[in-house]
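TICKET: design request
STATUS: open
ATTACHED STRUCTURE:
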């Protein structure tokens, strides 16, 4: 009776271990998907709009060279300064988020 019980316990332990490994694998997969989603979210919310506005700054700069209105140069520089600043901030924050996430997952 003791051998049967020991064998049964070992089988249950083996089944639980397999389930645990499956769950850990699922958790790692979900973490990876979340990381990918966060990177896409940062790009969509922070980076792309700033890139479009920088492009608009180039268009305004072209108009400055065509029409020589000083205010157009100031507007163009404002587009560049503000949006390049936002881009740098976005990448710095994204790096800090990754470092924090890696620290927490260890």
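STATUS: resolved
RESOLUTION: sequence designed for all positions
ATTACHED SEQUENCE:
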């Amino acid at each position: 009776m003791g051998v049967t019980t020991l064998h049964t316990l070992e089988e249950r332990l083996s089944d639980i271990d397999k389930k645990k490994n499956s769950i850990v694998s699922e958790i790692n997969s979900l973490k990876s998907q979340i990381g990918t989603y966060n990177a896409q979210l940062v790009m969509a919310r922070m980076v792309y709009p700033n890139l479009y506005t920088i492009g608009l700054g180039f268009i305004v700069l072209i108009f400055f060279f065509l029409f020589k209105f000083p205010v157009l140069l100031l507007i163009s520089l404002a587009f560049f300064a503000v949006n390049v600043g936002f881009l740098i901030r976005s990448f710095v924050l994204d790096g800090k988020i990754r470092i924090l996430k890696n620290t927490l997952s260890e």
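CLOSING REMARK: The mean pLDDT is 78. Residues 2-67 form the longest helix (66 residues).
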